[in-house]
Amino acid sequence: DGVVVPEKVKSNNLDVKIPKSESEAEEKGVEEERPRESDSNILDVSSDYPRDKHISIQRHLADLEKLADLREDERKPCPLCPEEKFKACYSHKLRRHLQNLHWKVSVEFEGYRMCICHLSCRPVKPNLVGDQTLSKMGAHYHCIICSATIVRRTDMIGHINRHVNKGETESRFITVRAPKSSYKVVKESATDVQVLPNHSTPQKTDSYFNPKMKLNRQLIFCALAVLAEERKPIECLDAFGATGIMGLQWAKHLRSSVKVTINDCNENSVTMIKENCHLNKMKVKLNIREEDNDETGEDGENSDTIEVTKMDANVIMHLRSYDFIHLDPFGTSVNYLDSAFRNVRNLGIVSLTSTDISSLYAKAQHVALRHYGCNIVRTEYYKELAARTVIAAVTRAAARCNKGIEVLLAVALEHFVLVVVRVLRGPTPADDSAKKVRYLIHCQWCEERVFQKEGNMMEENPYQQLPCDCHGSMPGKTAVLLGPLWSGALFNTGFLRRMLLEAVQYGLDEAQPLLKTLVCEAECTTLKHFSTHSPGDENKQEECGVYIKTPNTSAESYLVHGKRKSEEVLRGAAKRQRAEHSAEHPPFYYNIHRHSIKGMNMPKLNKFLNYLSEAGYRVSRTHFDPMGVRTNAPLAQFKTVLMKYSTPTYVGAQAEGSVHLPGEIQVGDVPAVTEIKVEEAELAEDDKSGAAAAVFTQSYPTHCAAD
Question: Which Pfam family is one of those matched by this entry (predicted)?
């Protein structure tokens, strides 16, 4: 009762006149935790703006100018800066100051701008030099929702995003709820999902949705569609649902062939998954442990019913068995591999997407050693190295559960590494798979590589396993031991062909070109020899020792599941035919730019593939590298063919004459554009690091080459 509110409040050199009645009402209703003097400046500015917001939160730049115009003097101060920082000036200079220092660095939210504030709202840490305290007043932002003060602009944006993720899009002082228009509906493959505005920011949103992973989702869908053709119905699990987009696509297109379970441990994500199910006219079957019974579907076997669970991914995979499991956590998947292989059914499929590319692509080698137990370095074939690193971890996890694997698909692109494997129960397949995890010897000079031989006996000179002789010509240690890595095949041709048929059937345009490249890479052939229709003898695709039905296969040519005796017979027959019908593709690839010769124009990539094929080697392009060549040719022969069909950079060098390679490394009688003669063949073989171009500096006339 003894508090007297003056009619004239002086704040920041601004004289604001407040009526008595209004000041008394404000005295009773104002909160004690917000006694800032600068709040009084906002009273006479705009009637539609909430009175409890800070002065630095405005809709338009003109509102800030109105605050300065409250003073009738010719020189006007900045309403957001103390007088020690910015002295009063004329209106045109003040406008420029407000626009450049406050408005341009503001944070926008639902039509409001949170401008940077230099007032003494935020306590400043004491400085050693007392005179600098005023000059270093803490610049900060005021949150429009919770009135917190934050220094950095990026932190302010993250702070607002966290409010949005929690659904706190309204101020604690306003009772009107924010409109639901902040939600965004995204459509992909005839499936609609509702996401939050910051859906593309991982770890900071409950509805993470990455449009760049559309190709990944299409490949996984094709793999599931192929499995659905083998046995129906199959139980499949999307262990990390987020928005539920992947599980919704499975249920919407495959219908009664699959029983979809979408899981997530975040309660907000589970709520959004249910809303997205209703958005796509799907019934929701809740987990038995949940207490909400109003949304449970009447018939759990309905083709339009999706089961939504809220559990840890490890827990749900320990409790139940599935035919198809997909793991797509944020980062590495190694923490969930043991649970995935524990209860997965025989001949089921486990697919995992790893997005920790910084460690897999050898940018953080210590992290790769910690997560995967694998020593890797940056090489020209680093993407395939990443895929083999993940498969090695998958193999060890499956072997611990007495299960073996066969790799059906391994893709490593810019944003992710995708691995799809088929599970084979039993200790024998587990032992066979574990034997394919071996170390790799990599030469750091010429980048030649070879898997270490099987066996436990130590060799006196491991460098003898490398085809190159860099160790003999270079001082010190020239090679490193990488691994352990998967040394087997990365693709199954029959499975990839069936995936391509499913992609054509469902109109997945983005996946079709990649699947064609993968089929050619699995067969190690060029694209012009590729055909989407397999010959009659290839209709019975052999995978994991089991014949699988394809669309062109007769009724007598595929296995009827459930007959153990016939399965064993076909498994034994398939093992005998495996070596005859399928030859594994060569491991790794060479980059044609990496091994090009200085001063020479290399041939076109497709022509170079033909040259290698005519020389008697298996050759294909690879999806890992657009300029990569997968071939079984040694690096020395690869460089020989590349040198033979390269042309000098300068035209004058062609006019002087042609030279040729020495006779001991000639490759075929293919007509060459330019023949090159090497005067010192021994020196050219020793210098594998690119200095071999110096040997070819002298050329001779054409008639001398005949001698």
Answer: TRM
Cα angle 589, 383, 461 (rounded to 5 degrees) comes to 60
Q: What pLDDT, on the 0 to 100 scale, is given for residue 76?
A: 84
List the domains of the chain with CATH numbers. Answer: 57-122+137-166 (no CATH), 186-287+304-453+475-493 (3.40.50.150), 590-648 (3.30.56.70)
Tens-digit pLDDT profile for residues 49-79: 344 678 888 888 888 888 877 666 778 888 8
> What's the rounded Cα separation, in Å, for the pair 360 and 382?
8
In degrees, rounded to 5, the angle at the alpha carbon of residue 170 between the alpha carbons of residues 168 and 175 is 125
pLDDT for the residue numbered 33 = 38
Helix axes 214-230, 511-523, angle to 10 degrees: 70
Classify residue 206 by its DSSP letter. S
> Tens of pLDDT along 529-547?
665 554 333 444 444 444 4
Find all residues with CB under 8 Å of 662, minimum gap 6, and list them.
677, 678, 681
Helix (H) or strand (E) holding 595: none
Assess contact for 54 and 61: CB atoms under 8 A: no
Q: Contacts by 675-681 with C-beta closer than 8 Å and gap 24+? A: 675/644, 675/705, 676/643, 676/644, 677/705
Mode of pairing for the β-strands spanning 647-648 and 619-621: unpaired
User: 3-state class of 452 per DSSP?
Assistant: coil
690 burial via Cβ count (<10 Å: 0-12, 13-18, 19+): middle
Which parts of the chain sit beneath pLDDT 50? 1-51, 127-136, 172-181, 288-301, 534-566, 569-570, 573-582, 652-707
Number of H helices, E strands in the chain: 22, 27
Q: Is the dihedral of CA 418, 422, 426, 430 positive or negative?
A: negative
SS3 646: coil
Kind plus residue range of the DSSP H or E element containing 172:
none
